[in-house]
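Re: the 169-residue chain
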Amino acid sequence: FVGMASLIKAAGRVPAGEIVFFRSAFALLPIFILLAWRRELRTALHTSRPVSHIARGLVGVMSMGLGFSALTRLPLPEAITLNYAQPLLVVLFSAVFVGEVVRLYRWSAVVIGLVGVIIISWPNLTLFTSGVGLESDQALGVTAALLAAAVSAIAMLIVRRLVHSERTA
């Protein structure tokens, strides 16, 4: 993932939608090879929950697009750091939307993690400075990165539901 993010940064100002398309297109060949090697190619597209798969696909593409947009607008360390909010948001969304029981130990880890993301990002992004603030391109990047983390967390919740009834292939 770091290699992919570095290549996206090196590509310059290629539109995020184009990056999403080619990243997904190039991922198809290894996936098909893996499924064929495991003899699961024939059954891979069978599902009892097509709407959930479509929702997962749409949410995944949205998350990828937002994440790649953030990578094109922010320095690489900041974009990756902001993405570290994703697993923390999975815990938060699991508790709020799924009703998962989250105990104090995990809540404290989530709070510490989110504070850490803010502390690491704060000096370089100047998000909370008075007066100048962020350049508009960086503000879009920060917004895109945080939205990507949130939407990716939603994708994880959808996948978590899907694994109960769907095969991995």
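The two ends are 21 Å apart (CA to CA).
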